[in-house]
Amino acid sequence: MSVDAPDLDIAEMWRAYCHRRFPTRLRGAEVGGIDVVLLDADTAGCVSAWLANGGQLDAARLRILTSCVTNVAAALTVFADGEERYYLEQLHILAAATARKCRPLEATAGHEAAR
After folding, report:
1. What is the pTM assigned to this prediction?
2. What total number of domains does the chain contain?
3. Which among 6, 49, 50, 104 would be 20 to 30 A from 15, CA to CA?
């Protein structure tokens, strides 16, 4: 595997996530003022970007992903069992694994000159 290739385990978790049905009871649910649908979408966007960028995220997306890890953990305290809990557990595992393996996105020379 090349250095630029994303982690296969995360790619496999991502594929499973993409085929998982979003639980009905999580639609419209809020935890600590955070909409669970948006939390799910933010997490998915960051993981998708991580995979597309060969295991790297820019600083803003890394902050978002780190926040998602914390917020999904908080949501897990609200949903004690059932389909919702399982979905959130899998989302947390995916988000946390991605955040752990993330490398900062290297700025290109053109971006650096613009700063």
Report:
1. 0.84
2. 1
3. 104
